[in-house]
């Protein structure tokens, strides 16, 4: 089997890359280890930056997003049992859209298949070879894909990053002393907007997926097991952390899904080795506070699709050579922003009262200074691609 771009991974990065390449007249094949049902049901991100939404519109992928996505013009920082609204649109002119990552994945798969795209699900044993030549290959159980270029879009635990020889990649790894317990519940959201809460027992986040489905997160210790968190225990903790002096009421409902995710910051540099290009979580992870992960994956593959089109149509190498540097500038901005949001909102068990007072001072400054709120808002809404 042969194609121009062999893509490993059918997450947002791999699927969108395949779509963008198709629009540029470049062929690709996507190899995904899981089933279609699995990737379409995996509950993850929910916040799309403005540049992400604009791109999806431009490339014909936003029909359902525009119908079902929830545009948000602000969110709340909640601390000292009180809300402080960050008016995203008033401050920046921009907005974000709440639309589940798995919905984007469904839309992408449908669009690729409708256009005759080649996505192979359930492909195990993928291994990348010969990326230092002009004819790289992806071997997998039962077959092989020859290509001009390999795109490693296989997420943080994928195989492609590991095929870069030792000494080529420099990795930056920061493990945060927190994890997020995520809960999806069939309950009407308790507030029209997202609420990021700093509470003495730890961070909590109120988000949503639709007018009928609420998404909630709780900071827990990284060693916690989901089996030890009964639904009642989760709701009790959420009620406690989200309580306000003006009587906020958290609506409960049947739990659809719950899981615990550790938090880390990770970057691998450079994002290219020979004809292997890493994109999305395969190259970098951010802590989720601030909702940047999927949006970074989208930004990477936009840059990559243009670079690969120039290479494969015109033999131009400048854009593939600058691919890594171009992406890493945005990646490090997002790492910094996510770190800032995380440290401002979470409670580390070894943090002293001094640190806690600093957090509250930062939160009050952000809530009351137009300059500070605007800086937060422009990062949150998303800097232009
Ligand atoms: P993935 O989505 O991980 O896709 C990689 C794909 O490769 C998967 O389908 C996987 O099955 C496949 N694969 C792996 N190994 C192989 C292999 N060997 N062979 C073949 N296929 C393979 N981001 C945001 O922007 N906004 C948010 O609000 C947000 N919230 C989040 C909340 C949580 C709780 C979590 C966990 C993440 C959140 N993120 C958020 C991050 C976001 O989900 C990721 O950054 C995003 O999924 C990255 O997309 P990707 O395509 O690079 O990787
Ligand atoms: C969601 C996830 C995030 O990481 C975030 O910062 C905001 C919302 C969500 O899943 O809804």
What does this structure look like?
There is one protein chain. The chain has eleven helices and 20 strands. The protein is of the alpha+beta class and 385 residues long. It folds into two domains: 5-73 and 96-173 and 264-342, FAD/NAD(P)-binding domain (3-Layer(bba) Sandwich); 178-263 and 350-381, D-Amino Acid Oxidase, subunit A, domain 2 (D-Amino Acid Oxidase, Chain A, domain 2), CATH 3.30.9. The strands form four sheets. It has an eight-stranded mixed beta sheet with strand order 6-5-14-15-16-13-17-20. The radius of gyration is 21 Å and the shape is globular. It starts with a strand and ends with a helix. The mean pLDDT is 97. Keywords: FAD, Flavoprotein, Monooxygenase, Oxidoreductase.
CATH homologous superfamily descriptor of the largest domain: FAD/NAD(P)-binding domain
Distance between the termini: 34 Å
Our count of helices gives 11
CATH fold category name of the largest domain: FAD/NAD(P)-binding domain
| Biggest sheet details | 8 strands, mixed
Identify the quaternary structure here: single chain
Mean pLDDT, rounded to whole units? 97
Strand content: 25-35%
Detail the poorly predicted runs.
none
Rg for CA atoms? 21 Å
Q: Using the 3D structure, state the CATH architecture of the largest domain.
A: 3-Layer(bba) Sandwich
* Main β-sheet, spatial strand arrangement: 6-5-14-15-16-13-17-20
**CATH level 1 class label of the largest domain:** Alpha Beta
The class by helix and strand makeup works out as alpha+beta
Named once each, the bound ligands are: flavin-adenine dinucleotide, 3,4-dihydroxybenzoic acid
Integer tally of domains: 2
Helical coverage, percent range: 25-40%
Shape: globular
Strand segment count: 20
Domain FAD-binding: 2-338
Pfam families: FAD_binding_3 (PF01494)
Keywords: FAD, Flavoprotein, Monooxygenase, Oxidoreductase
Protein name: p-hydroxybenzoate 3-monooxygenase
